[in-house]
Amino acid sequence: MGKRVAVVLAGCGVYDGSEIHESSAVLVHLSREGAEAEVYAPDVDQMHVVDHVKGQPTQEKRNVLVESARIARGSIKDLAKLDVKGLDALIMPGGFGVAKNLSTWATQGKNCIISKEVEDVLKAFHAAKKPIGLCCISPVLAAKIFPGCELTVGHDTECEKWPYAKTAETMKELGCKHVNKHVTEIHVDVKNKLVTTSAFMCNAPIHEIYDGIGKMVAEVVRLA
């Protein structure tokens, strides 16, 4: 029987929700691995709504669960109803929604607050010794919750290819070990069962991001 994997989303769209290509890649690779994805999102308002043409916030109000349902094709559950007992693993794609709707990382950095629902879910999988896959910006959640853990968000030296490299330095300040990896590579923290890859933290061709996420998903399923 295939593994049951919770996929937690943070909205729909890179600037104010889950990164759509990353989310889709996770779901495709889970299908390829013979795993069953169960999609969840918190039933809360987004921090704000961003016009993805202009890159600017609007006055609109949107709900994280309702927006995430677009990616899940309507098959989604309220994160508050997630029961770790019936699931084998957890994966959280990236996108600014992780830093805006699941936490306050976007505005407060290492001093951020993580949504209680999200923190409880991460801690529940960790306590049950079930694997957790994180890509793009979502590893910052683990950096905040699990001191001393090993993670990657790509490289720690900023350049055109790695425009968000300062994130790695901030994560180190939280006491975790950052491991430099290429976009098609993953890092596995064996002790904490954390599998991470950089995805769109890297300015790379989309197929490389897709491949890196594929390796993350395959390893999460293997560990489950």
Describe the fold and architecture.
This protein has 224 residues and is of the alpha/beta class. It contains 8 helices and 11 strands. The protein has helices at residues 20-32, 64-71, 96-100, 105-108, 116-127, 139-145, 166-173, 206-223; strands at 4-8, 36-41, 49-51, 56-58, 77-78, 89-92, 132-135, 150-151, 177-178, 187-189, 194-197. A hairpin with a 4-residue loop joins strand 10 and strand 11 (194-197). The radius of gyration is 16 Å and the shape is globular. The model has no long low-confidence stretch (mean pLDDT 97).
What attributes characterize this protein structure?
224 residues, alpha/beta, seven-stranded mixed sheet, two-stranded antiparallel ribbon, 8 helices, 33% helix, 17% strand
What's the topology here?
Blueprint (H helix, E strand, L loop, with lengths): L3 E5 L11 H13 L3 E6 L7 E3 L4 E3 L5 H8 L5 E2 L10 E4 L3 H5 L4 H4 L7 H12 L4 E4 L3 H7 L4 E2 L14 H8 L3 E2 L8 E3 L4 E4 L8 H18 L1
Parallel strand pairs: 1-2, 1-6, 2-5, 6-7, 7-11, 8-9
Antiparallel strand pairs: 3-4, 10-11
Radius of gyration from CA coordinates: 16 Å
Strand content bin:
15-25%
- Give the integer mean of the pLDDT values: 97
What is the helix/strand order? Answer: EHEEEHEEHHHEHEHEEEH
Distance between the termini: 12 Å
Morphology call: globular
List segments where confidence is low: pLDDT < 50 over at least 5 consecutive residues: none
Largest sheet: 7 strands, mixed
Give the helix level as a range of percent.
25-40%
Strand order of the largest sheet: 5-2-1-6-7-11-10
Individual helix count: 8
Structural class: alpha/beta
Number of strands: 11
